[in-house]
Amino acid sequence: MTIHLESQSDLEEAVHALIKRDPRLKPVLEVAGMPALRRREPGFTGLAHIVCGQQLSTASAAAIWGRLSAAFDPFDHDAVRRARTDRLGRLGLSAAKIKTLKHLAREINAQRLNLDVLAEEDADAAHHTLISLPGIGPWTADVYLLFCLGHGDAWPAGDLAVQEGIKIGLGLKERPTEKQMAPLAEPWRPLRGAAAHLWWSYYRAVKKREGVLAGQG
């Protein structure tokens, strides 16, 4: 059964379950504090929002998304499917992102892709479904599963902050590679998504602490 992180209490329950299962995480939580649940809009809109922000600064991504969502009311897959490519380009989207969004819109319209169903699928299977789509890489897939669908077991193996957090928190000599992250996270199934939230919080806490110490030196 897939576990969903729909509320802060869901996440806290999952984190406590993780600590019971893996005592190594107790000192990690003590440093990190309880992570806050981050959620974004599901469905096509949520995925399109992530695609628009790929490889852009936060400010640039927000500006493009603002223009895009204001131009279409409602903003949905049908609106994008019907929209002229040059109009989407004038709103700030690159040719590659237009191609990705157009493909997603066609797949959803033809009922070959159901993004909501992914919330119930095995996390690895859902990840592979998404990365098989043009323009959807591992980072986009994992962010969508975690933050838009609240998938409790989604695991962002390629995320540098999670990798660095695990290196420090588990006392590893080197930062684990994306490939090495899979076996490291096995003890945390089916709550790897909650573990990711914990490692992000831990990474932020450790880096902030290191920054203060460096400033004092």
Automatic annotation (TrEMBL):
<dbReference type="GO" id="GO:0006307">
    <property type="term" value="P:DNA alkylation repair"/>
</dbReference>
<dbReference type="Pfam" id="PF00730">
    <property type="entry name" value="HhH-GPD"/>
</dbReference>
<dbReference type="InterPro" id="IPR011257">
    <property type="entry name" value="DNA_glycosylase"/>
</dbReference>
<feature type="domain" description="HhH-GPD">
    <location>
        <begin position="52"/>
        <end position="203"/>
    </location>
</feature>
<dbReference type="InterPro" id="IPR051912">
    <property type="entry name" value="Alkylbase_DNA_Glycosylase/TA"/>
</dbReference>
<dbReference type="GO" id="GO:0005737">
    <property type="term" value="C:cytoplasm"/>
</dbReference>
<protein>
    <recommendedName>
        <fullName>DNA-3-methyladenine glycosylase II</fullName>
        <ecNumber>3.2.2.21</ecNumber>
    </recommendedName>
</protein>
<dbReference type="GO" id="GO:0008725">
    <property type="term" value="F:DNA-3-methyladenine glycosylase activity"/>
</dbReference>
<dbReference type="GO" id="GO:0006285">
    <property type="term" value="P:base-excision repair, AP site formation"/>
</dbReference>
<keyword id="KW-0234">DNA repair</keyword>
<keyword id="KW-0227">DNA damage</keyword>
<dbReference type="GO" id="GO:0043916">
    <property type="term" value="F:DNA-7-methylguanine glycosylase activity"/>
</dbReference>
<dbReference type="InterPro" id="IPR003265">
    <property type="entry name" value="HhH-GPD_domain"/>
</dbReference>
<dbReference type="GO" id="GO:0032131">
    <property type="term" value="F:alkylated DNA binding"/>
</dbReference>
<dbReference type="GO" id="GO:0032993">
    <property type="term" value="C:protein-DNA complex"/>
</dbReference>
